[in-house]
């Protein structure tokens, strides 16, 4: 296999020679290191493109040729505006400062990180799992979404779209009548699963759904940022920790195409990257991660907290932390449920973004999650329409996203409108919108609609055990004290700790907690802080 290329460009020949030397000495064995002293020559190398004569333009054009390549800018200390332009306009992944001596401190660790990221999504010639299905099948969508979110590499073969492809024809011939049982998953060992569902595929690809033992110091339910942070802190401080996740580690954040306000990542990072890094970090400290696995009930047999899992197994622990976040609120309109997974999607639908090439995509909702998704779809779709009930985005979306959206010529805002009905036989074909200013119904063609209309916790399984507010968010700490009284049944001579529920030793953090700030950083903060209280609780069990 040809070596991947590390391309460096600088018009200062001394700098160029130095960076080339340092790159070669560290990465020469695995990468082809190419140096170029001009953007023009570099673009020629990339694909003989016509160039504009500045570094950001080069990065922008280079990005069009190799959109998956990682891009870093080497800039002078004083020239922060070059870095900011490069971040804003060329989506660079990192900027290095000149001089970078010693490279072992100021160049290699950051480059290693970038290359690790790149390798995580780089697919050389394909040797892994193949999934055969059709774009408009909800089952195929669920399976692809599951594989993508669990970072299981696979090749997608749309049997309708590639019906004339010789390789697809050959595969379908070999499959014979089995080809009717879509989605079909073909594994490298020659085995296959027909009408595959995520749980079967999870077992086959070795995702762990069963605990290794029945007792843990700390059990965490939910693998979003809050649960992952608690797992890292708990395990790194010596607690035997298990984390149970219903779908895929990363939670809602894992669906975000670009988180730009998380401290320490000035260029932003995708939720997928954040989740991958956090999972590696948690596993390094020995956290056992069960996914996909759902927790369906909890009970106490003092001093133990016992969880019942969807497969019927039970896990007991001394301390339990709930970090189950929130799930998308459903949109109530005719056609929505019927076409879900066939053009109608809840959340980011990163699996679908590529399929929207050249199409018109509707994003419903005006919060940051909708804005990020619109920015992501705009890279592929012909046109993206953000539909909001209100008269503008300003009260619901962060200014930085509003500014980015304004700069995108193919994103349009449709204010004062709401979904009335989704139309289509086998997949979404049209949407009717009710326009509140005119009272008119407008029916427009559409191939995909992504819904972001807020979220609610799913905590019914905790009813009768934990105190929740009227929307299902879990009460903790001071919220449990009413009229100076501790919660009913609380048998200790202390108040509940800050993030503790009305059952001693059961804690709740992140979006699922009543009154929490719905952000990645606050979830991470609460998950980490909770571990301190868990230690205090465990010291007296
Ligand atoms: C598209 C999108 C973009 C966003 N962008 C940003 C951003 O740019 N910046 C920012 O700060 N915030 C952003 N947010 C908000 C942020 O992602 C959330 O505040 C954060 O993920 C909350 O973390 P959490 O761990 O509390 O819950 P979640 O992320 O919701 O994770 C909860 C996890 O628990 C699992 N779970 C639920 N019930 C069970 C059960 N019974 N058994 C097992 N597992 C269960 C779920 O599957 C889920 O994985 C965004 C959200 C979305 C949806």
Structural class: alpha/beta
Task: Tell me the span between the first and last alpha carbons.
Answer: 58 Å
Bound molecules: flavin-adenine dinucleotide
The global form is globular
Task: Summarize the amount of helix as a percent range.
Answer: 25-40%
**Beta-strand proportion:** 15-25%
Please give the count of helices.
Answer: 15
**Average of the residue pLDDT scores:** 89
Largest sheet: 7 strands, mixed
Number of strands: 25
Structure, briefly:
The protein has 541 residues and is α/β, with parallel strands linked by helices. The chain has 15 helices and 25 strands.
Describe this structure in words.
With 541 residues, the protein is an alpha/beta fold. It has helices spanning 13-27, 39-47, 55-65, 80-90, 103-106, 108-121, 138-149, 166-175, 198-204, 225-236, 271-284, 350-353, 368-378, 399-407, 520-538; strands at 5-9, 32-36, 72-76, 94-98, 129-133, 154-158, 184-186, 192-193, 215-221, 241-244, 288-290, 295-301, 304-309, 314-322, 327-328, 344-346, 360-364, 383-387, 411-414, 417-423, 430-435, 441-445, 448-451, 455-456, 506-508. Helix 3 (55-65) runs parallel beside helix 4 (80-90) and helix 10 runs parallel beside helix 11 (271-284). The longest helix is centred in the last third of the chain and has 19 residues, at 520-538. The protein is globular and about 75 Å long. The relative contact order is 0.09. The structure holds flavin-adenine dinucleotide. Flavin-adenine dinucleotide (FAD) binds at residues 221-227, 244-247, 251-253, 255-256, 259, 261, 294-295, 323-326, 348, 368-369, 372, 458, 510-511, 518-521, 523. Flavin-adenine dinucleotide (FAD) is lined by residues 221-227, 244-247, 251-253, 255-256, 259, 261, 294-295, 323-326, 348, 368-369, 372, 458, 510-511, 518-521, 523.
């Amino acid at each position: 296999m040809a070596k991947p290329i590390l391309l460096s460009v600088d018009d200062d020949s001394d700098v160029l020679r130095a960076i080339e030397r340092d790159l070669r000495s560290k990465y020469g064995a695995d990468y082809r290191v190419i140096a170029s002293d001009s953007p023009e020559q570099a673009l020629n190398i990339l694909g003989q493109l016509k160039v504009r004569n500045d570094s950001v333009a080069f990065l922008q054009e280079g990005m069009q040729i190799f959109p998956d390549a990682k891009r870093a800018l080497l800039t002078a200390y004083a020239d922060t505006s070059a870095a900011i332009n490069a971040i804003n306009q060329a989506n660079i992944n990192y900027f290095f400062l000149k001089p970078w001596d010693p490279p072992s401190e100021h160049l290699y660790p950051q480059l290693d990180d970038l290359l690790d990221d790149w390798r995580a999504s780089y697919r050389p010639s394909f040797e892994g799992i193949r999934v055969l299905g059709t774009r408009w099948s909800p089952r195929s969508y669920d399976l692809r979404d599951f594989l993508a979110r669990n970072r299981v590499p696979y090749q997608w073969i749309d049997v309708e779209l590639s019906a004339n492809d010789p390789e697809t024809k050959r595969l379908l011939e070999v499959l014979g009548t089995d080809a009717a049982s879509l989605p079909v998953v073909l594994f490298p060992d020659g085995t296959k699963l027909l009408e595959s569902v995520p749980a079967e595929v999870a077992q086959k690809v070795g995702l762990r759904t069963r605990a290794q033992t029945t007792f843990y110091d700390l059990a965490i339910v939910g693998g979003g940022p809050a649960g992952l942070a608690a797992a890292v802190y708990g395990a790194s401080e010596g607690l035997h920790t298990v984390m149970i996740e219903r779908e895929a580690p990363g939670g809602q954040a894992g669906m975000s195409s670009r988180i730009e306000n998380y401290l320490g990542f000035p260029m932003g990072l995708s939720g997928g990257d954040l989740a991958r890094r956090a999972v590696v970090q948690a596993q390094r400290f020995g956290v056992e991660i069960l996914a996909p696995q759902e927790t369906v009930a909890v009970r106490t047999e003092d001093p133990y907290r016992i969880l019942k899992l969807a497969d019927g197994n039970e896990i007991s622990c001394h301390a339990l932390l709930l970090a189950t976040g929130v799930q998308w609120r459903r949109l109530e309109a005719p056609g929505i449920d019927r076409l879900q997974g066939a053009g109608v999607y809840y959340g980011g639908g990163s699996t679908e973004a590529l399929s929207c090439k050249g199409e018109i995509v509707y994003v419903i909702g005006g919060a940051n999650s909708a804005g990020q998704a619109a920015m992501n779809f705009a890279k592929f779709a012909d046109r993206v329409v953000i539909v909001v009930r209100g008269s503008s985005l300003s009260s619901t979306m962060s200014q930085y996203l509003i500014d980015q959206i304004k700069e995108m010529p193919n994103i349009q805002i449709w204010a004062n409108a709401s979904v009335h009905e989704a139309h289509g036989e086998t997949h979404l074909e049209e949407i009717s919108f009710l326009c509140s200013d005119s009272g008119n119904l407008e029916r427009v063609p559409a191939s995909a609609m992504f819904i972001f209309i807020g979220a609610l916790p799913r905590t019914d399984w905790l009813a009768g055990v934990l105190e929740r507010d009227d929307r299902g968010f879990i009460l903790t700490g001071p919220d449990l004290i009413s009229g100076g009284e501790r919660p009913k049944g609380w048998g200790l001579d202390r108040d509940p700790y800050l993030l503790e529920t009305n059952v001693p030793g059961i804690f709740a953090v992140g979006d699922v907690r009543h009154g929490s700030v719905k952000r990645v950083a606050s979830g991470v903060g609460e998950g980490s802080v909770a571990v301190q209280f868990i230690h205090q609780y465990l010291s007296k069990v």
